[in-house]
Write a structure and sequence with these properties.
Residues 3-36 form the Putative zinc-finger domain. InterPro entries: Znf_put. The chain is 79% helix and 0% strand. With 77 residues, the chain is mostly helical. It has one domain (3-76).
Length: 77
């Protein structure tokens, strides 16, 4: 399984709408792909935060770095 194939199944994996065979394939991919492990973990954490409606205050320096990174990325598009 490639990372693209994993990402195509990510929603179904999180929603637990995958067959046992597909789950095994996804878990096998995760066992050897740190990038997809981070993607899955981050996605789950984002959903959890959203569901709890928790607000986080970013430190000024972090907020400024984030805004700069977003603007720099937008300029490249």
């Amino acid at each position: 399984m490639t990372c693209s194939e994993f990402l195509a199944q990510l929603d179904d994996l999180i929603d637990d709408h995958v067959t046992a065979t597909m789950r095994a394939d996804l878990e096998e991919h995760l066992s050897g792909c740190d990038h997809c492990v981070v993607t899955l973990s981050t996605t789950r954490k984002t959903i959890e935060i959203y569901r709890k409606h928790e607000l986080y205050t970013l430190p000024d320096t972090m907020r400024e770095r984030l805004q700069k990174a977003i603007l720099d990325r937008c300029k490249k598009c």
